[in-house]
Amino acid sequence: MPQFDATIKHLKEGIKSMTVSAAVKNIEGWEATLEKVEEPAAKTIVKDLENLKKHLHAKELDSEAIRKLVIKLGKETVAIGKKTDSKNASKIQALGEALGHSAETAAA
After folding, report:
1. 65-86 pLDDT per residue, tens
2. How many whole angstroms separate alpha carbon 78 and alpha carbon 93?
3. Number of domains, the chain
4. Owning domain of residue 75
5. Which residues of 58-79 are buried (b: 16+ CB within 10 A; e: fewer)?
6. pLDDT on residue 33
7. 3-class state of residue 27 by DSSP
8. What percentage of the chain has pLDDT greater than the value 70?
């Protein structure tokens, strides 16, 4: 299971501070976890994470497209956190909020 606290910490340090390889490694960890979740919203997040990886591997980064995708992922993650009754619900919501905040901060 991915470490919520570690991912949130990286996001709070600034989305631009992560290397592409570190971001991709983190994304792949989340994909592996989400692929096991039997929730339609989780499947959408996995697709968006795949899209994010494609953007990160592009020759030229489209920072605006990446920012919009991270904001979308943040909203989706908060929404799934609100739907779940797992012990990690609050951490899922905190992760979604950190995603959205990091993308908004990166635009500033």
Report:
1. 999 999 999 999 999 888 877 7
2. 4
3. 1
4. 4-107
5. eeeeeeeebbebbbbbbebbbb
6. 83
7. helix
8. 96
Is the distance from CB of 93 to CB of 5 less than 8 angstroms? no
Helices and strands: H and E segment counts in the chain:
5, 0
Specify the pLDDT at position 107.
Answer: 67
Distances (CA, A) of 15 to 52, 74, 82, 85: 13, 13, 24, 28
Could you tell me how many residues make up the chain? Answer: 108
Report the alpha-carbon distance of residue 43 to residue 21 in Å, rounded: 23
Q: Count Cβ atoms below 10 Å from residue 31 Cβ, excluding itself.
A: 16
Q: What is the pLDDT of residue 70?
A: 93
